[in-house]
Amino acid sequence: QVQLVESGGGLVQAGGSLRLSCAASGGTFSSYAMGWFRQAPGKEREFVAAISRSGGSTVYADSVKGRFSISRDNAKKTVYLQMNSLKPEDTAVYYCAARPGTILSRNYDYWGQGTQVTVSS
CA-to-CA distance for 31 and 72, rounded, in angstroms? Predict the structure, then answer.
């Protein structure tokens, strides 16, 4: 079983950047596809981005494509989400998630506690 801890959230002005990190412990990190999700107040949790076990494949939600970039360092057991050109509508709690296997499914087994990202206009 893998445990996930996010960090890097905060308050930023529109147009700014943040980099989220998610550190994993337990399990074999390189055997998990990793994803980022977010949940804004009053809204359902939504998919943001995912990266394959090797890091060779990534997928993004249309709303963040071209602005966000997901990456991973298997040696450090960490996945990152670089967020550029942030918009107020990106304000949400961001969650890191892990699942064994591929990124083809959006069903994740393990979740972090979340980190708040607030973008001011």
Answer: 12
Q: Report the pLDDT value the prediction gives residue 52, as an integer from 0 to 100.
A: 96
User: pLDDT class for 27, splitting at 50, 70, 90?
Assistant: confident
The SS3 assignment for 121 reads coil
**DSSP labels, 72-111:** EETTTTEEEEEE-S--GGG-EEEEEEEEES-SS----SEE
Residues 6 and 110 sit within 8 Å (Cβ to Cβ)? no
Whether 104 shows a pLDDT value over 90: the answer reads no
> Which secondary structure element, helix H or strand E, spans residue 18, and what is its range?
strand 18-25
DSSP code, position 55: S
